[in-house]
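Look over this record before class:
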Amino acid sequence: MDAALFPDVVVNGEVIPSTLVAAEAQNHEGPRGKPGIPWRKAARALALRTLLLQEARRLGLTETPRQVAPSRFETEEEALIRGLLAQAVDPEKPDEAAIRAEWARDPERFRSPPLWEVSHILVACGPGDAAERQAARDRATDLAGRALGNPRGFARLASEASDCPSKTQGGSLGQLGPGDVVPEFETVLHQLQDGEITPEPIETRHGWHVVRMDACAPGAVLPYEGARPRVSAAMEKAAWARAARSYTQKLVASARISGADLRPLQPEGADHERVRH
């Protein structure tokens, strides 16, 4: 991508270096052969970020970076933006009638977590060794074919071939719920029906897995009192996002911006979501 083809991004006289826009563009998707789309998305995200930082500094705000994940803290700029929005955005919380009406619109959306009875066969391998990983995949693929050819023999096959300690129980992992296994494994559990075996092995950090869903109990529909905290939290989050968009567009309306399009975002606008975290 030739940065010279794109205009400089300038926010209230502050120029955003094209090198920063090019780096940010790597975080945005666009159709193949159309590099201008990621560039424009990146220019928008950085222009909005710069505008918010300018406003935070104009107000003299200071914020201490918070820990946002294990071993990860906010940058000073992320902390400033968080502090600015916390001060400027104060949406009205939904009342009880609104929360109940939202739940009643489709109670099926609010369920307790599912429970799964699962068995698997693990072919362990080290992720850093390409040859070992391929050999493990080939072996797991063969085991998947054998399991599909004789579903009733799954437990025996697991006890003979699995690299997991669960082999002593015929591969059974017992009862699982959301969050009990690594995300790659859990994704598969949401897709399997009772008695179904994965036709292809599934890779996780532990190796390759052949998975069988022994039984699945979908979560029950929650009564209003059980669902209320989730409904209320979702409505408050949506109200905050609307108020934040309104606030940022007021800043945009009074700013001098060139090289980036900051017209109002759609409600699900990904660029705004990036700057508020």
Notes: Residues 267-277 have pLDDT under 50 and may be disordered. Residues 224-253 form the longest helix (30 residues).
